[in-house]
Specification:
The chain has 267 residues and is α/β, with parallel strands linked by helices. The chain has helices at residues 2-9, 49-59, 62-82, 96-99, 104-115, 134-146, 163-166, 178-183, 188-203, 216-224, 241-262; strands at 15-24, 30-41, 45-47, 89-93, 122-127, 150-156, 173-176, 207-210, 229-230, 239-240. It has an eight-stranded mixed barrel, surrounded by four helices.
Length: 267
């Protein structure tokens, strides 16, 4: 049923983008917004991405949906820039199907040209599993990087990764999976994994950001580990574009207060 309805969801305007801030813990300033897809079914209401994204991936619908997400997110960010908002970035997830599209790089280039968004403001997120075919990953990511687009590995630490090839990939950022953040204060192994990821990122001269930050105690621990970027409900849940437009500076002011509370720590 969901597969049949998903075929019509995009054309019927049932898919929506929500945006979640990525914050610099040193200043509290919002660095970027991650675009997250949501589906409001006409009969069943909001459907979890965990329920419909695998269907979209399996059927190939993720390709047109993914292109719509990229175009919509870039268009929205360009609109915010034109309205005088800070020159922040936009972060968009690439699916496995998209990553193996032959025309992926051309599609990205066309979206940037159509929306008139500078490539330097776009960050694409991939998962570790996409790098299993190292030769393909290196080739595709280098082509994307040549456009001026930034690259991040999402949910780092939860899947396959070759540390040897990690240094060969033209990455800008590692994202610590929220499962480690959620359990780091009660599980020493999760805390050790976070410390390891931060250390790897520093050695490879990559930025590192923690997902799923929900309280001040978690924030303090991340700060102590020298993880200097955070994303999660402590700062803001994912919000529709209209709400971001209205509440952007209030969200940032709260983040600045959190940042000031951390300043006693030594970096």
């Amino acid at each position: 049923m969901l597969e049949l309805d998903l075929h019509n969801a995009l054309g019927n305007g049932e898919l929506h983008l929500y945006y979640q801030p990525k914050t610099d813990l040193r200043t509290g300033h919002i660095l970027a917004l991650e675009a997250l897809i949501r589906w409001k079914h006409p009969r069943h209401g909001w459907i979890s991405p965990g329920d419909f994204i695998p269907i979209a991936e399996e059927t190939g619908l993720i390709v047109p949906i993914g292109e719509w997400v990229l175009h919509t997110a870039c268009h929205q960010l360009k609109s915010w820039h034109d309205q005088g908002f800070p020159l922040i970035g936009i972060s968009v997830n690439l699916s496995t199907r998209q990553f193996f599209q032959q025309d992926l790089v051309e599609m990205i280039e066309n979206v940037l040209a159509d929306t008139q968004l500078s490539a330097s403001y776009l960050e694409l997120e991939i998962t570790e599993s996409m790098t299993i075919n190292e030769r393909h990953a290196i080739e595709v990511l280098n082509k994307i990087k040549q456009l001026g687009v930034k690259l991040a590995v999402d949910d780092f630490g939860t899947g396959y990764s070759s540390l040897y090839y990690l240094k060969e990939l033209p990455l800008d950022q590692l994202k610590i999976d929220q499962s480690f953040v959620r359990n780091m204060l009660k599980d020493k192994h999760h805390a050790a994994i976070i410390a390891m990821i931060v250390s790897i990122a520093k050695q490879l001269q990559l930025e590192v950001i923690a997902e799923g930050v929900e309280d001040q105690e978690q924030l303090s621990f991340l700060w102590e580990q020298q993880c200097l970027q955070g994303q999660g409900y402590l700062f803001s849940p994912p919000l529709p574009a209209q709400t971001i437009s209205r509440e952007f500076f209030q969200i940032q002011e709260r983040a600045i207060l959190y940042s000031k509370n951390l300043q006693g720590a030594v970096i």
